[in-house]
């Protein structure tokens, strides 16, 4: 199975087209207002329409109100919603019962305990995204966590790797972790919030080269 690739934090058509052309399986649209990658709902809906059918659209939310979450799902109609805050398994279970959208939960990995505790999302999320712990922002910081923690972990849910992944380190990350999915945002930018089309292509190529090695 080819590694799934998510390019997150796209803000315009050029970025969506570049990620799709490069072979991303998922693109991420960020609705967190404090992020340099924030897009308003209407822009997210337009980019969703622009995205080719074979590429899944992931909507990123951080501790959003239930009313806003429902509105965002209604307007953008994403394939996946990625919760990147302190959303609880209980809340995600409620949402899961009310929508058919795929639910991902990002978790900041501090230590082995974080991974052990992630089992509480069984039945609440379809996939866990293991990221570096939150800094000033809950994600998109370019920070990595200790990938070796994953070596001992028995995954009970589908999962992906995020946090500081770049064209230069993604092959090594895949070798060490055997992640079935990789997610990058700041690692394919020239400045915060500015995607670099060459880096997007290089990232996807590095993943595909690893798949074929
Ligand atoms: O990208 C952001 O600005 C962001 C803001 C708030 C929550 C999550 C955010 N991004 C997600 O964080 C991870 C890792 O990002 P990076 O590759 O280290 O820059 C990724 O899932 C992004 O989608």
UniProtKB/TrEMBL annotation:
Tree of life domain: Bacteria
Record Pfam families: PRAI (PF00697)
Gene Ontology BP term (one): L-tryptophan biosynthetic process
Pathway: Amino-acid biosynthesis; L-tryptophan biosynthesis; L-tryptophan from chorismate: step 3/5
Catalytic activity: N-(5-phospho-beta-D-ribosyl)anthranilate = 1-(2-carboxyphenylamino)-1-deoxy-D-ribulose 5-phosphate
GO molecular function: phosphoribosylanthranilate isomerase activity
Positions of transmembrane segments: none
Ranges for domain N-(5'phosphoribosyl) anthranilate isomerase (PRAI): 5-205
Keywords of this entry: Amino-acid biosynthesis, Aromatic amino acid biosynthesis, Isomerase, Tryptophan biosynthesis
Similarity comment: Belongs to the TrpF family.
Official protein name in the record: N-(5'-phosphoribosyl)anthranilate isomerase
């Amino acid at each position: 199975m080819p590694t799934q690739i998510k390019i997150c934090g796209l803000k315009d058509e050029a970025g969506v087209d570049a990620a799709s052309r490069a072979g991303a399986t998922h693109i991420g649209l960020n609705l967190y207002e404090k992020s340099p990658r924030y897009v308003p709902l209407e822009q997210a809906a337009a980019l969703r329409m622009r995205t080719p059918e074979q590429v899944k659209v992931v909507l990123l939310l951080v501790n959003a109100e239930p009313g806003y979450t429902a509105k965002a799902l209604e307007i953008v109609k994403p394939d996946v919603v990625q919760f990147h805050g302190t959303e609880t398994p209980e809340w995600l279970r409620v949402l899961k019962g009310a929508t058919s959208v795929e639910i991902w939960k990002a978790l900041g990995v501090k230590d082995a305990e974080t991974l052990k505790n992630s089992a509480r999302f069984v039945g609440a999320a379809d996939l866990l995204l293991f990221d570096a712990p939150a800094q000033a922002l809950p994600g998109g910081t370019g920070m990595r966590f200790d990938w070796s923690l994953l070596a001992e972990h028995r995954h009970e849910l589908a999962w992906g790797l995020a946090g500081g992944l770049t064209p230069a380190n993604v092959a090594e990350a895949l070798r060490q972790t055997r992640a079935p999915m990789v997610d990058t945002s700041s690692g394919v930018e020239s400045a915060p919030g500015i995607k670099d089309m060459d880096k997007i292509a290089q990232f996807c190529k590095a993943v595909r080269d690893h798949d074929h090695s």
